[in-house]
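name: query_chain
kind: protein
chains: 1
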Amino acid sequence: MTRSARTAPADPDPVRRIADAVLYEGYLLYPYRAGSPKNRSRWQFGVLGPPSAAPGSFAEDPGMAMECLLSVPPGSSAGAGVTVRLRFLQHQVRQVGRRLPDGGHVDVDELTVDGVSFLSWDEAVEREIDPGPVPLAGPTDRVFSVPGGEESEPLTDTSGMTVGRIVRRREPLSGRIRARTTEDDGFLRLTVSVDNEYTGAAADKRSAIHASLLGTHLLLRASHGAEFVSLREPPREAAPAASRCAQRRCWPVLAGPKGSADTVIGAPIILYDHPEIAERSPGALFDSTEIDELLTLRVMTMTEEEKAVARATDPRAREIVDRCDTMTPEDLGLLHGLLRDPGAPPASEAGAADGAGERRDAGPDGLPADDVPWWGPAADADVSPESDAVVIDGVRVARGSLVRVRPTRRADAQDLFFAGRVARVTAVLRDVDGGTHVSLVLLDDPAADLHDWYGRSFCFAPDEVEPLPDGGPGRGAPDPTAQKESPS
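structure:
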């Protein structure tokens, strides 16, 4: 997720900031130019197409639906309810026109006015539908509509002469929101569906997009003591009911501060419970994979001509380019990442444990200087892949040992390529969960030494390798120096 309150308007509702990131997921991708192949086909997620679209239009399914579980305290079911908000983007065509001598206009792909380019492009307008509170006692069926429209903006040069115009057009939209509850093993299963009910024709892909709901998602808030149940990690008593919840193009996750359970986001992309905005992200990059540093550096390497095209493509692209151009080395350094101990207590608890009023000097990584970072080699000095060993079938296997590979998991194609081959062990590794892995390179691979030098190897579980106790295919104990010699 890539929005931050440092540059975006302050929003007291962190859930809405997450929802905005979902709304604009994939809206515009690097290199943020209209001519880029990956920006010619847009709105990859949450598209509800018109139901009357012709087969040749390749329109998306017109509906989406999600089911979630509610826990309602005894005696409060009469007043309990859920607020449902539907959010999506309405497609808007931005058509640039050049003024003709007779006062008319002709549509063009691009018009340059005093050195500034204006491109014809497809934009979007944010829409939010609030059908009102949804009582849990009965079903709800609400119809909504969004008007279309057309606005014209003149383009004038420095002398004040009108040389062109920008016309923005939107198709009217209509749809339906349905909600109902079903008792399920002591919980309430809430089903919410959204359907596009556009009645016009859509003969091709472009007209289908004009009539679609884009980036569609739901925000649900429970009231009067009702709480949502996590479907990703349901409590034991809710697991059977959670397994019966069905999703169609929309996945519900708990939102808001960790530990809260009054809000759910129904998103067209799969999220984890309580998703968070990357706190060091300076602004939206529409990627939502937290690779801000990489994308920012790429924008910085664009030529001035490429940046000009990106700025002309979309106002949001202009914001990205301008922001990247003005970032200081300190701002860029913030994007380099932040390592945290996943087992550390919250800051308030950590402060209490250190003692009231006690100050501890922090090192360059922000941790107390006398603490050993959990990710550093010194945190587990007992682990040494170069010398560690594992006993397999009574034989000690370590770096330099020869083994025959017997894959059993069939995780990828390498399992088939390595089956039955003799390999040399390069390290015995242990992961954070306590698992052991044997890292190896094939003995007859001409590039084996190069792979070893680069640290590139393949890992198998101990039960997937067979030790060769007598030195491998021949006799004699394995000699690491001899193994690297080419046969004469």
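note: Residues 1-12, 348-369, 472-488 have pLDDT under 50 and may be disordered.
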